[in-house]
TrEMBL record:
It comes from Kibdelosporangium aridum. PANTHER family: TRANSLATION FACTOR (PTHR23115). This is sulfate adenylyltransferase. One of its GO terms (molecular function) is sulfate adenylyltransferase (ATP) activity. Keywords: ATP-binding, GTP-binding, Nucleotide-binding, Nucleotidyltransferase, Transferase. It is an enzyme of class 2 (transferase). SUPFAM superfamilies: EF-Tu/eEF-1alpha/eIF2-gamma C-terminal domain, P-loop containing nucleoside triphosphate hydrolases, Translation proteins.
Amino acid sequence: MSDLLRLATAGSVDDGKSTLVGRLLYDTKSVLADQLDAVHRASADRGLSTPDLSLLVDGLRSEREQGITIDVAYRYFATPKRSFVLADTPGHVQYTRNTVTGASTAQLGILLVDARKGVIEQTRRHAAVLALLGVPRLVLAVNKIDLVGYDESNFKLTAKEFTTHANALGYADSDVLTIPVSALVGDNVVERSANTPWYTGPTLLEHLESVPVEPDPHHVPFRFPVQYVIRPRTPEYPDYRGYAGQIAAGTITPGEEIVVLPSGSRALVERIDTPDGELTEATAGQSVTLVLSHDLDISRGDLISAADNAPAAVDEFEATLCWLADKALRPNARVLVKHGTKTTQAFVTELSTRFDEQKLSSVELPESLQLNEIGQVRIRTAEPLPVDDYTVNRRTGAFLVIDASDGTTLAAGLVGAPLPVRDSFNPGP
C-alpha cells in the first residue's frame, strides 16, 4: 500500500498557489467529471478560453469573487506510489493564522514565488513559520517561469537567495529543493518541460512521490486527551466506565500500563472499545473508548499517557507564540490556554523575545507582540498541564491561547520551540 505525505502550500497573493494545486489535481486525474465541468462553466463565464484550474481549490464564493484564497482548502489525491493530503493555505498577510493551521501537521511545505518578483517579505515570513512549526522539508516553486522567458539566471538567483534564508532557519541544503514551474501551462509540475533543458532535477510530482516521509505521530509515546467519560448506567451496562477521545499520538494495546495526568494514578488498559467492536491495537488519529483495569478519578481534560514515558504536569512553562489577533499581547495578560481537551486560566508572565522573521534576529524583552508577530513567552497556568516539548511531540506540544472575554483565538502556542535564530546570521564585528 502507498504511504501518505502531508504537505502544505504557502506564498504571497497572486503567486499562483491555487493554480499549482489545481494543476496537480488535474494532471494526476484526481478531479471528478462534475467538478471539471463546473470549472469549465465558471471559466467560460469569466470569458476565459482555457479552464482556470485555481477554481478547483478556491471553493468559497468569496474566494472566487476576490481571486484570493481565504480559508485552508484540504485536497486529497493519490498516485500509484503515494497518497497525499494537501493544505492550500492563504497568501495574504491577514490570513497568517490559517497558514499556521494548514502547516501544523505538514511533513513538507511548498513555497511559491513569482519568478518576476523573487523572494519577498511574505516568502521569508512563511519560511520562518514553517521552520518554527517543525516542517522538516521545503520546496521552493519558482512559478510563472514562462513569464521571464524560462531564464536560467533568474531562477538560479532566486534559488540561491531562498536557500541562504532557509539555511539560516536551520534547514540543510538536502532539505530544500528549488524547481522552476509554470502552474498555468504545466512546466515541471507533473510533466518535465522541454522549455527548461538547463534544469535536471525532478518535477514537483516526482519529488513529492520520492521524498522521505518523517515519522508520524504513531512513533512517539502514547498520548490520549480524555474528551468524555462514558457511564451508561443501564440494565445492560450498569457498571460500565469508559474514557472516550481521539488518540493524539502513539499506539496502545490491551494490557499496557498507563498513567493519568495530572493526578499520576496508574492502571492497565483492559479493553479498547469502538462502535464497531473491540480492538487489539489503536493508533494516533483513531477515536476510541478505553476501559481500564480499575476505576480512577478521571474527567474531561485529563491526559492518559504511556506509563514509561509520560510528560511532566507543570503550571509554568516557556513557549513560542504566533500572535494572531489584532489586539496586542502585553506582559501579565490574563488569557485562557487550551491544551488537548483541557482549558484553564493563565497569565503570560513575561515576553522574553520577539522574532524578526525578515532579519532572522530577536528583540529582547519587547513591550508587546502585534498581529502576525512571533515571540517567546513564559506562561503560568491555574492548573497543571501535561505538556510535551513541541520538537518531541507536535500534538501535545501545541496549544491555543484564547481571549477569556469572548472566546476568540489569540495565538497558536508551541511548548519550548526555541525561535529559529542563528548566531551565524549575525556574526557581529
